[in-house]
Amino acid sequence: xxxxxxxxxxxxxxxxxxxxxxxxxxxxxxxxxxxxxxxxxxxxxxxxxxxxxxxxxxxxxxxxxxxxxxxxxxxxxxxxxxxxxxxxxxxxxxxxxxxxxxxxxxxxxxxxxxxxxxxxxxxxxxxxxxxxxxxxxxxxxxxxxxxxxxxxxxxxxxxxxxxxxxxxxxxxxxxxxxxxxxxxxxxxxxxxxxxxxxxxxxxxxxxxxxxxxxxxxxxxxxxxxxxxxxxxxxxxxxxxxxxxxxxxxxxxxxx
Length: 255
What we know:
By secondary structure, the chain is an alpha/beta fold. It is built from ten helices and six strands.
């Protein structure tokens, strides 16, 4: 089973564009809405990365799978990371798109910018946030159109709460923690979000279990900007990871 987790200003439709590649390859796919997003915009109260990771692991339980592949974009990548570190025996492999590490602290300059971002976020009107996200997250017109549609259903309260949870998670990174599952760290070639483009390759170089890949012609929403390349890169990685971890997914996984 492959569980897809979307980012902020998005919903469970984020990965629709790549699902057929996975189902054609024989994978059972699952998408879900993060608290406060999509079908339940009122559920962001008390949102934390850890709480969302527990929800993700609970979803795997509900679906009756012993192990699953976790694929997360942006905020969803941090949540998928957290779930993999909390319960590595439940995670066959991890893929994060447009995400940095939850085991390595950023430098002083990025941390200063991150702390300053939350007060600024509170000041910006929602219409401007939606506009900026659509313009800067996606590289293609189709991906921008998806972002504009999904962002229409995201409230300012949800954006502030999820961003505050992200900032808190980064501020309290414990470098003693380890990501112990095979992982693919990737981002779009044109992803200029924060320090992703510089931090992701450094993260991969530190660990033998992490593979690094750049998706050409794509921005932060890489799987929507270049779905074909993204899907092929992810499936190539998963084929190798599944082989290393026991040659096949368990009964909750590949069909």
